[in-house]
Write a structure and sequence with these properties.
490 residues, alpha/beta, Alpha-D-Glucose-1,6-Bisphosphate, Chain A, domain 3, 4 domains, seven-stranded mixed β-sheet, five-stranded antiparallel β-sheet
Length: 490
């Protein structure tokens, strides 16, 4: 059994002893702490009620966790808006729609069915920051409970926000519904038997897109590993070619990640989901700047042509951004870090290379629904096949490795030594150590795990072999440091 407590929420496997898994006791503690800190974060007049939205994906444990969370909120005197089956971005949007004080999403994202989690939102429908998350963790550990009396118990209503979310997406200026309708697309959809099987077909219907459903029954019995990686999408790839679909679409259980399949059954690449959407939005913004007689430099000044992704995402986004005269910015890994940087630079678009698209014109959260609508708009305007669209983007390959350590104290020693060895290169230590070899357009990113004594090693180059070679060169240096060969040379 596993229970992981972090600043972004509490996540664990169902069943077991309190403190060792995600049990009812742990759910109550954490929800109570959220309520305590909610009152500290937002002050209200005497007698004014707090309101929290609760949404869940379709995993098997969802109803059990939902009842405990909602009951705890009510017992803390908080009014609950129960969104039922709702994607993560739908729940985030629901907080905005309801003008609520916060939200709790019940989802373990791409984790297998035995996992569930509580993800916490503020009044903007955005994830709490590190300081707020740490404060909730400390409060939960204190176990200093004081529930409300019978006259102060909260009330609960149930609402479905699915269509409201779709309405908001289709109302965006950048989503060309008419162009998509005219294109007459056929899409094969793999929703891994979760809430994507509810919202994505509705989106496609509204866009006039024919939808071939694969694993779209929202019963939580995941038909395959739910992370939308190529190795897990073989059934979708076959469905695309067997049905003559123009595109394959895969979403994870809570629908905040979007992975695509070309019409020939080959992966588009999750790293290129964000790249393709950014390409479309940048082209629109650049064209508008040109029409207004604004130079590229002037357009960049207010950062209208700015993009953001995390440090472990593909360089392709930077290349595409700069091709339009725009500016690319990087952030530490983690959605809240990306959105913070996006707000700082006023980014047009941002996200993560795992298929997470964040479009501020809608909201600051990863959203596969808006990602799919923008991608289809781009495809309709380009009038080409998906595989042909992919060929227009810079070619990079990312590899993922790890360094396992018996001594966790070695992590800092290795990271510090890498910074010293590669001091002449472009080094970023905001989140671990990322070394960019600009002359070759290659990079390697070393990140510590928050839960295990390991260093994750991500590398990118123009070919998979080159990326693997770079990663193993770095890992060999790390092995030398571990073995006492601190003078290892690059």
């Amino acid at each position: 059994m596993t229970l992981i407590k972090s600043i972004s929420g509490i996540r664990g496997t169902i069943g077991g002893a309190p403190g060792d898994a995600l049990t009812p006791v742990d759910i109550v503690k954490f929800t109570y702490a959220y309520c305590v800190k909610l009152r500290e974060r937002i002050s209200k007049a005497q007698g004014e009620r707090y309101k929290v939205v609760v949404g869940k994906d379709a995993r098997i444990s969802g109803e059990m966790v939902e009842q405990i969370v909602c009951g705890t909120l009510l017992s803390c005197g908080v009014d609950v808006v129960k969104a039922g089956y709702a994607s993560t971005p739908t729940t985030e949007m629901a907080v905005i729609f309801e003008k609520a004080d916060g939200g709790i999403i019940l989802t373990a994202s791409h984790n297998p069915k035995q996992w569930n989690a509580l993800k916490l939102l503020n009044e903007k429908g955005e994830f709490l920051n590190a300081e707020e998350g740490a404060s909730i963790l400390a409060c939960a550990e204190a176990e200093d409970f004081d529930f409300c009396d019978v006259d102060s118990i909260g009330s609960m209503v149930e609402k479905d926000f699915t269509d409201m979310h779709i309405d908001a997406v289709l109302a965006l200026d950048a989503v060309d519904v008419e162009a998509v309708r005219k294109a007459g697309f056929k899409v094969a959809l793999d929703a891994v038997n979760s809430v994507g099987g509810i919202i994505m077909p509705r989106l496609f219907e509204r866009l006039g897109v024919e939808c071939v459903k694969v694993n779209c029954t929202p019963d939580g019995h995941f038909a395959h590993n739910p992370e939308p990686l190529p190795a897990n999408l073989t059934e979708l790839c076959s469905a695309v070619t067997a049905n003559g679909a123009d595109l394959g679409v895969s979403v994870d259980p809570d629908v905040d990640r979007l992975a695509l399949i070309c019409e020939n059954g080959t992966p588009f690449g999750e790293e290129y989901t964000l790249v393709s959407v950014a390409d479309y939005l940048l082209s629109r913004a650049e064209a508008k700047a040109r029409e207004a007689g604004v130079s590229a430099d002037e357009a960049v000044a207010p950062y209208r042509l700015a993009t953001v992704s995390n440090l472990s995402s593909s360089r392709a986004l930077r290349d595409v951004t700069e091709s339009y005269g725009g500016k690319y910015f990087s952030a530490a890994v983690g959605e809240v870090n990306v959105t913070t940087e996006m707000k700082r630079c006023g980014a047009l678009i941002g996200g993560e290379g795992n298929g997470g698209v964040i479009y501020p014109a809608l909201h600051y959260g990863r959203d596969a629904i808006v990602g799919a609508a923008l991608f289809l708009t781009n495809l309709a305007h380009k009038g080409c096949r998906v595989s042909e669209l992919l060929e227009t983007y810079p070619k990079y390959h990312i590899t993922k490795n790890r360094i396992e350590l018996s001594d966790k104290s070695m992590i800092d020693r290795i990271l510090d030594r890498m910074k010293s060895i590669y001091a002449s290169e472009d080094v970023n230590d905001v989140d671990g150590v990322k070394i960019s070899f600009e002359s070759k357009k290659e990079w390697v990113h070393l990140r510590r795990s928050n839960t295990e004594p390991i260093i994750r090693v991500y590398a990118e180059a123009s070919t998979e072999d080159a990326a693997e070679a770079l990663a193993h060169r770095i890992m060999d240096i790390a092995a030398g440091i571990i073995g006492g060969e601190g003078a290892a040379k690059a």
